[in-house]
Design brief:
68% helix; 3 strands; 2 domains; mainly alpha; three-stranded antiparallel beta sheet; 11 helices
Length: 193
């Protein structure tokens, strides 16, 4: 939801970075263009949670229309450990090992390994896990980390120097979710100083 993330970030900034005022404004103006108040509130809570993990610089860049998809994805990997772990443990490893095709078995093996470590995840229904996979794969496609529906190819998306510098100043580890190796991250952050 990069466009919605940007709208929420813009409204938050316009409202003096006060969530109480911003929330009221977003709901009154139906900024998210949802049919019911309940849907508006549910979406707003999700987007607000994602905005909350961005630092001031990241939030301002998102609000100012700079690399919306990259900042929206950054907020998602900062918010959801499962997404971040899938990116670095599966996607990045495949990409760095020249194994570009993301298979169903990659997802299934990842989820099974996580279920053995998390009783909370182990208790989730198959339909919930299927929905999570659908949402995660849509996010990955939206930011350009995978291409194609049937034969998903892992791809490292283009990130501007400004975006990379911003992430380096916050925490370079987040660049791993964009398929950068540890040595690439160290080099990029050194260049951005």
């Amino acid at each position: 939801m990069p466009h919605e993330m940007q709208l929420v970030a813009q409204t938050f900034v316009e409202c003096g970075k006060d969530w109480n005022i911003a929330e009221k404004e977003i709901l009154e103006r139906n900024v998210l263009q949802k049919m019911t108040k309940a849907t508006q509130k549910r979406k707003l809570q999700e987007l607000k949670k994602r905005c909350a993990v961005l630092n001031d610089e990241e939030l301002m860049r998102l609000a100012e229309n700079e690399e919306i998809k990259a900042f929206a994805f950054l907020s998602a990997v900062k918010t959801y450990a499962l997404l971040y772990e899938f990116c670095i443990e599966v996607l990045r490893n495949k990409y760095l090992n020249f194994d570009p095709v993301l298979l169903e078995s990659d997802w299934n093996n990842f989820i099974e390994s996580k279920k053995s470590l998390s009783s909370d995840l182990a208790q989730k229904s198959e339909s919930t896990i299927k929905k999570a996979k659908q949402v995660i794969f849509n996010m990955l496609g939206g930011v350009g980390l995978i291409e194609g529906k049937e034969h998903r190819q892992t791809v490292r998306p283009y990130l501007s120097k400004d975006f990379v510098s911003c992430v380096c100043r916050d925490n370079p580890k987040w660049l791993a979710a964009f398929l950068y190796s540890e040595s690439d991250i160290a080099h990029l952050c050194e260049e951005s100083e």
